[in-house]
Amino acid sequence: MTSEYFDAVVVGASLAGCTAATLYARQGLSVALVEAHRDINHHKRACTHFIQPTAMPTIRRLGLDGPIEDAGGERNSLETWTRWGWLRSEARGGDTPDDSGYNIRRAVLDPLFRARTVAEPGVTFLPGHSVSGLVRTGSRVVGVVTNSSGGGRAIMARLVVGADGRNSRVAQRAGVPSSDHAHGRFVYFAAFENVGLPNRASRIWMLEPDIGYAFPNGDVTILSVMPSKEKLPEFRKNLQDNYLAFLNRLPDGPDLSAARQLTDLSGVLNYACVSRRPTAPGLALVGDAAMTSDYLWGTGCGNAFQSAEWLVDATVDALHDGGDLNAALDRYRIRHHATLSGHHRLMNDYAGGRGFNPVERLIFSAAVRDRKVGRHVQQFGERRISVKKFLSPTILWRSAMVNARLSTARPAGGVDRAA
Q1: pLDDT reading at 408 higher than 60
Q2: Any bridge partners for residue 147, and if so which?
Q3: Which CB contacts under 8 angstroms, 24+ apart, belong to 341-346?
Q4: d(CA 346, CA 383)
Q5: pLDDT tens figures, 224-264
Q6: Residues 264 and 328 both lie in one domain
Q7: Which end of the chain has less Cβ packing within 10 Å, N or C?
Q8: Are residues 112 and 162 in the same domain?
Q9: In-domain check, residue 307
Q10: pLDDT score of 356
Q11: Residue 416 has pLDDT above 50, yes or no
Q12: What is the pLDDT of the chain when averaged over all its residues?
């Protein structure tokens, strides 16, 4: 078995892994990028293809914004239907470039980003290499063992980064425990062309408890249905017809009269939300390997970009100068937890398959009637504010006052929000 030495080894060449590898290499570090798939054009299929606006600073830092737009990526917005009407995204004062993210299909984004990453000086790309074990010195991870058609290799590094997804082999082999939360809904989705929508906004229908969504990506729109789990046996008896019937029942739903389905239905029937401690001695987890939340909210791509950037910023100096890597990893762990854990807990709770609870009913009903509450909900959905701020007494009081003043009936043609 051959042995090679790098400053960092990153396992997984999807969004999180390519972000980490690119940013480390640009800081002058040597990086091994290990990928189990041989095809550089491999891409993730079960995805909303929606990138949250909070990831835009990372995307611009990577220099991906121009290539994404050249490849047909669209600046996105989100409209949410509830029984009280439509909650539509609004640009905040100033209309900064971070006011929206991107919609882009992973079949386009993944190969584009991976090709740019492997071209970075300092990145050694190892496709077709699966991790079969970890190398340890005491309790510290100091490398990985890979298998490929060319045989086994020991790839040694001061830091091993697990960017290999929700079922991370790196995390499993390191013995990192996971906290799993069962999902109470299943999902079926397909790609269509010529879908009739009123605009280019992404749309989510919160049917309590069922969910539908439409995500436009250039000429292609991804249409998904997420019924609650107890409906699965009946739904599967006539899968295609039930899927289309669900879409056709959506209030103000997509017009499929001229649409053409481009792909077969794909389904995810048993999906657990997963979280892990994102660090161990010599090891860090990024993207879905560290935390996989409910796909309903479209946070996975943004988490991948941001968590990898947080890791690089926390550890690059220690990797350069032989400093205290443990302290650097602690800084990453603290930031990851502080930024993502509160939202993750709320998403886990809603993923169980329930309808809105009393607090959610209070806020969402006020959000379609009052611009301030509406912007507040938008900021929370984009992870710009914490759970504590989202549930602040001030916003709860305002929501109660809005609902006390205005009728809960939905006027014909939608709900107008007060200034």
Answers
A1: no
A2: 130, 152
A3: 341/275, 342/386, 342/387, 342/388, 343/293, 343/299, 343/383, 343/387, 344/273, 344/275, 344/291, 344/293, 345/387, 346/387
A4: 12
A5: 999 999 999 999 999 999 999 999 999 999 999 999 999 99
A6: no
A7: C
A8: yes
A9: yes
A10: 95
A11: no
A12: 92
Q: State what percent of residues in the chain have pLDDT above 90.
A: 82
Q: What is the CATH number of the domain that holds 287?
A: 3.50.50.60
Contacts of 175 (CB under 8 A, 6+ apart): none
Residues 16 and 134 in one domain: yes
d(CA 279, CA 315): 12
Both tokens of residue 340? 């993502």
Asked if 299 and 400 sit in the same domain, the reply is no
Same domain, 149 and 204: no
Domain-embedded: residue 195:
yes
Please name the amino acid found at residue 368.
Answer: V
Task: Assess if residue 91 is contained within a domain.
Answer: no
**Angle CA 263–304–82, to nearest 5:** 65
Q: Where are the alpha helices (DSSP H) in 124-258?
A: 169-174, 232-235, 239-248
Winning range, highest mean pLDDT, from 106-110, 160-164, 383-387: 160-164
Does this model's pTM top 0.70? My answer is yes
**Which of 211, 244, 268 represents a domain boundary (last residue)?**
268
Same domain assignment for residues 295 and 334: yes
Do 261 and 122 belong together in one domain? no
Whether residue 283 is contained in a domain is answered as: yes
* pLDDT score of 411 more than 80: no
Domain end, chosen from 232, 251, 268, is at 268
For 5, other C-beta atoms within 10 Å of its C-beta total 13
Give the pLDDT of residue 232: 97
| Residue 94: per-residue pLDDT | 42
Q: Are 145 and 47 in contact (CB under 8 A)?
A: no
Tell me: pLDDT of 95 over 60: no
DSSP string, 374-392: HHHHHHHHTT-S-HHHHT-
Express the helix, strand and coil content of the chain in percent, nearest 5 each: 40, 30, 35
- Looking at the structure of the chain, the number of domains it has is 3
**What pLDDT, on the 0 to 100 scale, is given for residue 418?**
41
What three-state secondary structure class fits 131?
A: strand
pLDDT of residue 91: 53
Q: Among 229, 223, 205, 188, which residue's Cα sits nearest to residue 351?
A: 229
Domain that holds residue 242: 187-268
Which CATH number is 257's domain given? 3.30.9.100
- For residues 271-291, give the mean pLDDT: 96
What residues contact 378, with CB distance under 8 A and at least 6 apart?
78, 87, 89, 90
Please give the pLDDT value at position 415.
45
Strands 211-217 and 220-226: antiparallel
